[in-house]
Write the C-alpha cells for this entry.
Amino acid sequence: MSRAISLGALASVVGYLAFVEFTSGVLQGYYTPMLTDIARALNVHDADVNWLEGAQLMLSALVVPAFAKLGDMVGHRRMLLISTALTAVASLALPFATSFPVFLAIWALQGFYVVWLPLEIALIWSRARAMGQRSSITMKSAGILVAALEFGAISGALVGGQLIDTLPLTTVLLIPGIIVAICFFVILFGVKESPSPTGGRLDTVGLTLVSIALIAFTGGLAMLRSQGVGSPLAWGVVLLGLALMVPFVLWELKHDDPIIDVRMFRSPTLAPVFLTAGLFGVSVLGAQAPLSTFARTDPAEVGYGLGTTGFATSLIIGIYLIAMITGALTYPIVARRVTPRFTLMLASILVGIGFLLFLPFHDTYAQVVTNMVIAGIGSGALVAALPSAAAAAAPPTQTGVATGLTNSVKTVGGAVASCVFGIALLQQVAGGSGSETAGSLVGYMTVWTICGVTALIAAVTLLFVPQDAFKDPAHAHETDDETDAVIA
C-alpha cells in the first residue's frame, strides 16, 4: 500500500510540474516568431537578436549552479518558487522596455526559468529514491516534462505568431508574464517539497569564483561580437575567463561541500554527458534566432530566405517542436529496448543530419520543415535524456548539481554559439546581401555547419560512456509495471 501511495504522489507531482514545463515552453516558443518585429521596434540589426539569446544564456550559466546546489541543500521546490517569482517579474516588465539595452537586461533576468527542468528532475529523482527502477521512473517522467515543455512551446509559437500579425507588440509581450504568474501559484499550492534536503552552507567563495570566470569569458565573447575577431583585447578577456577557472577548480577540489563537485567531470559516465550537453547547446539554443530570421528574410530582396509571415514562421517552429515531443516520448521506449547510451548517440546523429541537410536544401518551406523534423526528433530525445542520465550517474547528494550542470554547460555552449553565429551573420559582403538588416547567406551556412558538426562530435563522445550506464542494475530483473503506473 505504501508503494502505491508513493507512486500516486509522484504521479501528482509530475502532473503539476508538467504545467511548469508547459509555461517554460511558452516562454521559449512565444517570442521566436516575433524576433524580427522586436528587432525592428528597437531599431537594431537582425544579427543583434543573438544578443538576446546570449545575455539570457550568460545569466543562466551563472544562476543554474547556485540554484541547483541550493535545491539539494534547502529543497528543490523552494528554489523552484524563487526562480518562478523572478521570471514572472521580468516577464511582466519586458513589454515596457523601450530601448534595446533595457530590453536586453530584462530579457536576461527572464532567463531564471532555465533552472526549472533541472530542479524538477532532481525533485522527481529524490522522491523516487525508495522505489525500484528509479532511473526508469525518472527517465519516463523527464519525457513527460519535455513533452509538456514542447507542447507549451508549440502553443506559444502558434499563438505568438498569430498575435504579432494582429495586435500591437506591447500587448503581445504582456501575455507570457501573466502565464508565469499563474505558474507560481500552481507550484505554491500543488507541488510538495523533496524529502531530506542535505542542508549545509553554500560555497559562496566557489560561487563567486565561477561567476567571475563566466562573466569574463562571456564578456570576452561579447567584445568579440562588437569589436570583431581581430581584437586582441577581446581575445585577452576570453582567455582571462578561461584562466580564472583554474583557481575555481583548485578551490572546489579542497572544499568539503563545493558548489560544483568538479570531480564529476572526471567520471567516465558523467564527463561525456556534460560534453554532449555543451555541444548540444550549440544547436538547441544558439540556432533558434537564426532559424527565425532566415525564415522571415525576403528572398525577393536578398536572394535567399523564405519570406514568411509571423504565423507561417510559427508553423515551422510548431512542427519542429512536435518532432521534439516525439523524440522525448520515444527516448525511454528505445532506451529500454537497446541501451540509453546507444539511444543518446542515435539522437545526436539525427540532430547532426538535420542541420547538415540545410546546406543543400534550404530554398523551400518543405525543405526547411523536413530538416527541422529530423533535427527535432533527436533534440527532443536529448533534452529529456541528458538531465535524467546525469541524475542516474551522480552521487546521491549531488543530484541537483549534476542535473543543473547539464543545463549549465548546455547554456555555455549556446552562449558561445550565439556569439559566433552573430559574427557570422554580420558578414554581409561575403554573403552578398543587399539588405542593411538581413544576415548573410554565408553566415547561415556557417550556422548550419557548426550545428551539424558539433552534434556528430557529441555522438562520437558518447562512445566512451560505459554500455550499461544510466541503468538500475539492482532492479534490472524487474518489470516496468510500477514505472508505467507513474504516468498512467
Remarks:
- Residues 134-164 form the longest helix (31 residues).
- Confidence is low (pLDDT under 50) at residues 1-6, 428-436, 473-488.
- DSSP finds 21 helices and no strands in the chain.
- The CA atoms of residues 56 and 108 lie 4 Å apart.
